[in-house]
Amino acid sequence: MSELIKNEWEKLIKKKSSWIMWLILVVLTFAITLLVRSTTKAQSGEVMMKANDLFASLTEMTSFLNLFVVVVAASIVAEEFSRGTIKFLLIRPFTRSQILLSKFIVCVIYSVIGTIILYLSSLISANLLLSSQSPLAVVKGYHGWNALTVAGAYAGANLLLLLLYITITLFISAAIRSQSLAVGVGLGVLFGSSIINSFLNVVIPKYQWLKWNPFNMLNIKNTIMENKEAAASYPGYLNFWQMAGGILVYSIAIYLVMQLLFKKRDVSLS
To answer: Which UniProt keywords are present, listed alphabetically (predicted)?
Structure first.
């Protein structure tokens, strides 16, 4: 199994696009920080925004990281079908479950490395371009946590979201074998969730069970900040651990269905 994961990782990392997406993530992080610097600069030349205020939220760049991971997850299975290499892959001494699991693990590894890159880029760019601060300084409104911990909590919560995005995208990619459709669905979940949540917020007060819908789980990053009023004022409120548990349950359920579909997939049509 480790050999299979190693092979899948080598195939992914040899692609220029895999490196380019990480590079774009770094460039965009510095560009956004530079933009923030220009808009918060006083006439005296002093930058009014503190480094930890932007670093704690990972420069609001997690959406770009999620986008790149969705693209990787969409291509890692669909390309095997489009290039006809899936037949050669399946004649190797590995089960279909192992092959799909290895691709899933490789996507998770790519996500973790991307998260580390974003974390470090945010820390460095914020302290270079904004009013520098010790990352050990406490960030107001986050349970007395320092900036390193707050940013780590955002990174961890986003990794949970990535787990769900990877599972959904791989599911579409394995079931329909269409890279473009897998990317489209992944982006739809990524960027359309706020619209769907706005609609669901209207009906959740009447149907409380709807707060366990998967789109509500995508709000998990909002639970990191202290907000004692949210539990009383927001009808669909779930705490961090409830949302984390929900994301894991949905991811496991989709993963099991995906494995079932992939086992029955007729590769002779590819």
So the answer is: Membrane, Transmembrane, Transmembrane helix
